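Example record

The entry below shows one chain as it appears in the dataset: sequence first, then structure tokens.
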Amino acid sequence: MDTAEKRSILIIYTGGTIGMITEPLTRSLVPVDFKEISGQLPELLKFDLNLATYTFDPPVDSSNITPAFWIELAKVIEKEYLNHDGFVVLHGTDTMCYTASALSFMLENLNKPVVFTGSQLPIGVLRTDGKENLITAIEIAAERMHGQAMVPEVCIFFQNKLYRGNRTSKHNAEYFNAFVSENYPPLAEAGISIHYNYGAIHYPVNEKPLKVHTTLNDQVAILKLFPGIRQEFVHAILTLPWIKAVVLETFGAGNASTSESFIGEIRSACQSGLIILNVTQCPAGMVNPGKYETSRLLHETGVINGRDLTTEAAITKLMFLLGQTSDLVTVRERLNQSVSGEITI
């Protein structure tokens, strides 16, 4: 680590398993103040860093996360941005990928690390994974090379691997390796040393002031296809009066039924102005329109190719873009562009 100056890291505790304790009466896990966490980690005193903390009051379970919470979190980072060299966000694992994806779009011109982490077991439990995750996340957030942050991105560190936040999905509710990034390589891997994958990390060419976007539009939905899905159900989703965009989770390389009842519903929705973004249900791979007849017909109706977007990135990108403009042509164009490294062009 470049030790030319003592760096400052802000640890933002939002809630989640890492900071939970067992409630005596119900035996359920409930969130507590960050002071309970820091008391379990005397190792934090060994860092030659200025460690500051910010605690959401009350802490928020990740199942209760909303776009309003993303805005509040972005505002905290905006307010503290010039006071710290990096940020570590403690967050519940269930919706961490949604929050990390949203923040990657909302924090324009980011040139400091925003490292999300958490745990599968509370930090006070004997076999917790929280200690190693938090300690390594802090080290990554503080790391610099030639005066520049080593990883100036919104990312997720979990079980020895650092991933780009908007490329990550939770795939395991039982084991410590909770997250995967099937379509993009890890930004770093932690063993005895932390090995950084410099070619995969985005480094800003021009250092511009941070610009925080705090307008999101949640008029979006997910429609996951399955064999036997009824036309009435598809019609009901696509004709909701408030809806602006739909993430369509298709089979394989972007495939769907070729029945006229289904294609007709999609065509009618696209013609009415609804944005439909095609992403694959597969954890790895990407939408490839035209590879099969079943995807060619779908995209001829006006469905947009979501390439290798995760569902989490697709939903949050739509909320972000629809919050920036009401011009649907512009939204469609930007869906085919990489905003913050979320898709492969």
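Notes for this example: The chain has a mean pLDDT of 90. The chain has nine helices and 20 strands.
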